[in-house]
Amino acid sequence: MKKIAVIACVLGSVFSSQAQKLNEVKWNVLNTIVNTSVELGYEHFIDTDQSVGVDLFINDRFSYFGQNKKEGKYKQFNTNSVAVNYNFYFGGKDGEHASGIYASPFLKYRFGNYKHDEKIGGINQRVETDMNSFILGVGVGYKLVKNDSFTVSPFINIARDFSKEVVDEFSGVEINAGINIGYRF
Questions:
Q1: What angle do CA 72, 78, 80 make, to 5 degrees?
Q2: Phi/psi at 64 (nearest 5 deg)?
Q3: pTM of the full structure
Q4: Phi/psi at 166 (5° precision)
């Protein structure tokens, strides 16, 4: 009888752990549409209300500064980024872990350059800004979960850039927003 009880407990724990999805992949569809950049993310849930994550930004830009390839008005970002974050979830529907309002402190590293035309002595010259920098910030959002599998999450981030070159060219504070679409497994 003890063996049957032990086997039942083991099987029960295996099936209950399978019911709770532990990973999520996501894509920021808004940045792809607005900035023609790709933002992909991965989240690993360490509890029903906490997760750690990593995001990859391809063709990352500073906030929503535009690009232009016209001579005399040339502005081009050649940057990528990697960010790590820790997410805290505050509520959501019963039975759906890691949903509802969340806060997400993060550390981001951007690398690459920004080239633009600047008038120097009345002549347009191409100037390059080194965009390599550490960025510290926090984001807030709301995650909607369907069947503990599909997610939609609008969010907004505010961050501080620690590169003197970037701060001199743009600003020390950067804002980013988006809508992540995700899948849990």
A1: 155
A2: -120, 35
A3: 0.81
A4: -65, -45
